[in-house]
Design goal:
The structure holds 2 protein chains of 2 kinds. By secondary structure, chain A is mainly beta. Chain A has 2 helices and 28 strands. Helices cover about 10% and strands about 50% of the residues of chain A. The radius of gyration of chain A is 20 Å and the shape is globular. Classes of the chains: A mainly beta, B mainly alpha. At the A-B interface, helix 1, helix 2, strand 1 and strand 17 of A face helix 6, helix 9, helix 10, helix 11 and helix 12 of B.
Chain lengths: ~350, ~450
Amino acid sequence: MGEMEQLRKEAESLKDEITAARKAVQDLTLQDHVAGTAVVGRVQLKTRKTLRGHLSKIYAVHWGDSKLCVSASQDGKLIVWDSYTTNKVHAIPLKSSWVMTCAYAPSGNMVACGGLDNMCSIYNLKGKDGNVKVMRELAAHTGYLSCCRFLNDNEIITSSGDCTCVLWDIETGSQKTVFAGHLGDCMSLGVAPDFNTFISGACDFTAKLWDIRDGQCRQTFGGHESDINAIGFFPNGNAVITGSDDASCKLYDLRSDQELITYQDSGIMCGVTSLAPSFSGRLILAGYDDFNCNIWDSLKAERVGVLSGHDNRVSCIGVTPDGMACCTGSWDSFLKIWN
Amino acid sequence: MTINTLSQDGVQRQQMPCLTKMERMIISMQDPDMGIKLRNQRLLITVIPHAMTGLDIVEWLIKKCSISDEEALHVGQLFVKYGYIYPLKEPRNLILKADDSSYRFQTPYYWMSTRWPASELDYAIYLAKKNIRKQGELIEYEKECYNALHKRINHTWDFVVMQAREQLRASKQRRKGDRIVLECQEQAYWLVNRPPVSPEHYKLTTLTKNTIAMLTPWCSLKYIGVSNLNGSYVKYCEQYQPHDPIMQGCLPSNPWITDDIMFWNMNSETYMFIVALPTKLRVERWSFSFMELLNDQMGRKEFLTYLEKEFSAENLCFWQACEDVRHGETAKIPEKVDEVYKQFLAPGASRWVNIDSKTMEKTLEGLKRPHRFVLDDAQMHIYFLMKKDSYPRYLKSELYKNLLARAIVPQETKKSVFPFMRRQRHSSPSPALATQTAEDDGKAKYSNSNSGTASRL
């Protein structure tokens, strides 16, 4: 009796409270609401640019501003592109070619990458002599680095195959906060527009919302039936979109703490590798294992377009900060810019 | 009875690894040829099928695993404690006795891996059933639980009682032997999952503590009606649609399509410096939310001008200084915080900001040990002050309305038709080729960026 019992009672009452609270707010579904919204119609995006230069599979791409983006490939190169002119601004050789992720700092001063070397390497693009050098190597993870995102020039958040996410201080190279709680490899992360929270998706089929300040997991979202590979915030910051190996994407609302919509189609049977919402959030672009990218109407949960043109799996996708275009990176070693 | 290790829906649940091992053993124990010999057991006046004695269990373990007496007994005890085997004679005493006391295997439905965590609702139904069946049959501990549950989940109590009645009614239609077996199984399950006396559930304690740690922050969430939120999504998408170039195109034109970079030029900071007139869409966006205004450099400047007229500019300056602390270099934090204190928070400061006394006290306390987030509370206070007060008034002000009226709506530029602009649309097979061609194309495009003009240059 005693403590164990107390704890049991507490845990169960909390769970019941949550279930009841969630049910209580399910007064009307999104479907009912959007019945009156205008239909998006067929969205046809064309390839405007093809960025060629990588020699092997591209694993990650991240936009820095409306024209500059960085891509990472397993040929051991990190390339910063001026995608408008298709020029390569920087081609950075990496120590370890097994790179799985890359990120561009919002200020445009730095890029980061990491992978099977369990480290996050930060490169300074605006060095005094014009050369791009390694600024820091953040090593403390015991698993591969699956995703990293800058908060500012001093802080970066990484997610790893050791089931944790970490907030680093870049200057000192030390871990400031460790976000532990996932039961499977953390595969991707996304930072909220207000930089106070971030979300992580993992191989335990759940997504978690973390508070950056105090390191606590604020909310957990389940419902997927397989690994969550991609995650992102809806532009208003109040919802989370996840893409999973179970061939579906889901939209979770943060304020009512539940899943609102699932984006799936019986014709799609391959996993989602990456996703990005359009600027207004109305469209969700998701890359799949079947070499295509599907465009979903986020409110009506209908497929409104396809981006086909890659000859191999689409591994990463990103929409520019001004919403002008989207970039897809694929295992066929090309990046394509669409709009 | 089939023993299936997959739980409902075929989804593998997150299990404690020891449970998997235990279950494997239990399954082999129940193997018809190599497992423990089961026989019927007489309990009072009824015959219980498939029972075994404690001695059987211990002997089988010794033989199967080649272990000592003591170890076999201990392992057997674990099975009882975790509810995989339950005693028939003294059900509340969850120990294994290596004699002829009878035991039965618990049905997989009630296994810890498939049913944990036990829900409060189920326990309430169980207790309600017991209560209805025979008033006063509940022991002291159960009575306490019953009352506590009644209080806590009062809103579903009708459901609980109804379920209990239904289950009792259904069980009455079974044969006596089956009924007793089911009752024993259920009782054993609840004894394990609500053990009144045993202090040895370390693993369960940790798991529970983790669950609570995970759940507690949730309960401070304010749940908002889903229908309210759905409305907000639609509203957000509709509001931002004109600003979403993929959905609705943009003026003067999308540089990716027409190769005309006018759009970027018009919205760049250098352009603003020369001509100081933003596009209408941009100015409209400032009215969507306070964050939109603050995130736009020009918007922030305009807002500052407005606040200066109102003599509350120090609020925005304070907010900006706090942002600088939050996102800036760690080494400079103490000196920055000190600056902020001197300028904005110290009594008699030149640009003193109006914060309520509680927040001020807390901030001043925190300043003794400055860190990145020490000014968060004060910043939040000022942010909400501006958002609720100055921001709406700014949107209604002459300053904003004038700017909106004067803002540019660029003319659409048509797609250029120069012949040498044609680009290859198919992907070439070898990545090593065609890098030259791409660069040549790029150079050509830059020489023709004057195909459109804004209406007010």
